[in-house]
Amino acid sequence: MPKLSRRYVHMAFFNLIWGLTFGGLLLFHKGVPLTPLMWRLLPLHIELMLVGWTVQFVLGIGFWIFPRFWRSRGNETPARRAFWLLNIGVWTAGLAGTLNAPAEILLIGRISELGAGLLFVLYVWQRIKPPGTGAWGKKRV
Asked: What's residue 128's pLDDT?
């Protein structure tokens, strides 16, 4: 497994652990009410589980599995930037909802997540080729 793919998966598990922790606290709070402020963790819990864990895990495995040509994955810079943008976006959007921050902060987080998705698609797009073509899209004879 490539290093960047491991980084995606490690961060996905990091987000999973925190998402499960906050979800467990919310579930415990339903049975034994602690404080009404506990419900403020819900946006962060949702963000960490849906985007931080699921999407990030899929991107990490996708980076690893998508076809590569001549043992090269090409220029990995967009995928590296997507990693950072996604994590910044997850924590910004999650904390914005939790801390009741202005809508602009939440928008910054969402734009960061969208940018990460677009960068990753841009990176993976170069690794897709039509069937029957060689490594660089040239028709086989």
From this structure: 75
